[in-house]
Structures are given as structure tokens and as C-alpha cells.
Amino acid sequence: MAQRAQRPNRYKIKEACSVKAVVIKGAGDIAVVDGDQQALQEGQVRVAVQRVGLCGTDFSLAQGQLGLNTFPVTPGHEVVGVVRESRSPHWAEGDPVALDPLLNCGSCEACRSGHPQWCNQVGVIGVVQEGGLQEELVLGAQHWVRIPDAVSLRDAVLLEPTHVVSTVLSTVNWESIGDLLILGTGALGLLLIRVLTYLAPHTTVWAYDPVPERLDRAVQASARRWSPQGAPAVDVVIDGVGAAASADMAAQAIRPGGHIVVYGVPKPDTAVTTAALLFRKNVQVTYSRLYSHDFSQAVAWIESGWVQASAVVSDELTLDQVPPFLREKRWLLPQRWGKAVVVVREEG
Ligand SMILES: [Zn+2]
Ligand SMILES: [Zn+2]
Among 35, 221, 232, 344, which one is most buried in terms of CB atoms within 10 A? Predict the structure, then answer.
């Protein structure tokens, strides 16, 4: 990170002493509480949180099903905001930033070779330590990614999911990909479809989701409706579900010699029974978990307009609306076809 000169405030943030935060105390036990403002140490940055995207990780966490954390914890790993106070030469008050939530040891073989997701101490801010569903978040300077001036925070809240998508797509060899099938068309599936219209304009993108409202969105976003009957065998399947049913569908749909990429998180008891079929078809399978600290591809895609909130975000909530949303599992309602974003503080 290059040292940057102080510049005039782009955003005026009112001062706060107590900090409102969503706290998950245990499975289904979720509240908004007022906490004390955290002291700022040397090298740290205080960010006024503006928007936080929710995803399946948060939903599993709220139900106590993630198994990676201790309670209580404040969720939120898809975070954008504005620097309120900096004790780092790399950041200045008013800088718009997004969170890089990946935690790793930094010194093992995997970390030193640029694969922090292989570190045996890998973790995510908002899961193993306090995340961004609060009015401000204090973290070391290295946890923040610069948002270009031309990008709105409304779009930039999709930076982390876009980084997931760019990591998934980086595993695919794009030479001679005629047909590609996306399983699961929630927010990440929609992001994939959107990016592929630019990245692979000559590839036919098929999509499947058991929720009709979601599949309709995928079709509106230019994907073709896939069904097991009459559809061609595809060169690549991208499985965002990670369940036994999606693994089965992928094994049926893939052509011999094809490539299946699984980025949906399998449940601990998910049993994949398609080994014989995959072997016969000589299929390559990649599991894509997490990502590196290099968000530059995702930043570039958002900056060039490939990724826009209007195509992916279906709901906006306030901080106070988060506990009932999580408790009542409202993300399962079919009309919530995309991502829910918590507007902690309005821009401007
Ligand atoms: Zn997420
Ligand atoms: Zn490590």
C-alpha cells in the first residue's frame, strides 16, 4: 500500500461514543446492543460502517450451525464504510474502504506462497472475531481494501462476494467452453451469470435453482433455464449448493472430460454418491474455498460496471431489523431472491 496524502472529507460522519452492534449470543438468540467505543491502537483504523451484506455464512452462524466460532459474536464479513480515524499512514479520514475479512497466520508455507486459504489457522472476521454488523469497526490497516472514487458503496458492498466469484472462475480454463451450468442462483449465482456475460460472451450459460423466483431472476440476467431432460451435456458445472442433490445433478449434466467446480459449502454429513459416474466420465472436480488477499480483480470488475447492486440485492434492512430477519429465517422467503444488505448508515 502506498502512503496517501490527506484529502478533503468525502463523507461527513457524525461523532459517536457508544456503538450499536448486532450480537449473536447463541443459536437463534440475536439482539442489537449498545457497546463502548473501542480504543484505537497504533496501526489500526476506525471505520464508520455503512453497508453490510448478509450471506449463507451469517445464516448458519445465527442458527449455531457453522461450528467454527464461539458465542457471543458480531457477524458481518461483507463490509463497506468510510475511515473515521486512522493511526496508520496508509489510510486517511474519509477514505472509502471494504473489509478483507480473511485471517491467517502469515508465516506458514501456505501463507508465504500466497495461499492463505490453505493456512491451518485460516478464519474469517465476522465468524471467529467481531465483524461489521455494528456502527464502527476497528481493525489493523491491512484488513481494508481501497474502493475507487468512482464506485458507490452501494455497489462496493458486493466486493467480497465478487472476490469469491473471481476466485471460482479463475479455476476454469476458458478455452473451448461452449456450455456452462450454474447450480444455485442466489446472489452468488446471479453475480456469476452477470460476470460471465462479459468474461465469456460466447459461452452458453445455463442455470438451475429449485426456487422458481430465483431461477426467473437468473433467466432475466441472460441465463438459459436448464432441466435434466433435453439439455446438452455441459463442459463446466459451477455448483454453488454443495449438497448431495446438486452433486448428483452436476454428475449427470457434465460431459466426459468436463470440469465441476464446487464453491457451495457442503454440510458435514453431505454424502456424494456419484464417484462411479464421475470416474467413468473422467471428470475433474475442484473445491473452491475462500480466496487470497488480492482483491484487485474484484475491484476492477466492480469499477468497470460488471457488478451492480441492482442486479443482485433484493432487500435492504436496518440494523434493528437484523435480529428478527435472522431469527425468523426470512432469507428463505421466495420473494427474497437475492442478497439482503444491512444499511447501517446512509451514504452522503
Ligand atoms: Zn459472505
Ligand atoms: Zn499460515
Answer: 344
